[in-house]
Amino acid sequence: GQPTTICHAFVGETVVLPCITSPPGELIFSKSLLYWQINGKIVHFFKKGEDSLDNQEKQFDGRTSLFLDQMKHGNLSLKITNVQLEDDAEYTCIYKPSASDPTKKFYIKLSVSVSPRTDQAPTPSGQSQVSSRSPSEAPCLAMLLLSFHLLVTLGAWLL
Asked: Which residues contact 56 (CB under 8 A, 6 or more apart)?
């Protein structure tokens, strides 16, 4: 039932897949489970307050991380470094606050493409890399920050 968020990244970049949950109260991670997966394969797994990556898909080994300092505020987003073409997929963020709570699911489609700069010969001054870094990260990050801001604002308003 959740709409799919669409993100884009170029090969070799870092991307943040946004996943924000509410209410923005303190989340208790010793009781919660957080899965990031593609077609049932584990991309990142967090349980009882820590990463549990024993069953993580090999293609993501050492390339995924969560924002541990922001998780208690509802930011369950996943950062993927050194994005590869095979990372192009629909990701599911699955969050279960505790055994008695319902499971929440969020869907994020990551579209990966080869950067135009890898097809060109580098210029003698090396300027071909100057401006192509952040635009692909911006749409997802901007949405994430907006969502986070709204959650904080709503949380303050409800108090």
From this structure: 42, 43, 44, 45, 64
Alpha helices by DSSP H, 5-101: 68-71
Q: Are 1 and 64 in contact (CB under 8 A)?
A: no
What pTM, to 2 d.p., does this model score? 0.72
For the chain, domains (ranges, CATH) are: 5-113 (2.60.40.10)
And the tokens for 157? Answer: 């308003």
Question: pLDDT tier at 97 (50, 70, 90 boundaries)?
Answer: confident
**Beta-ladder partners of 91:** 108
Q: Are strands 15-17 and 4-10 parallel, antiparallel or unpaired?
A: unpaired
Identity at 19, one-letter amino acid code: C
**pLDDT reported for residue 57:** 96
Contact 59, 110 (CB under 8 A): no
Cα-only R_g, the chain: 17
pLDDT at residue 141, rounded to an integer:
52
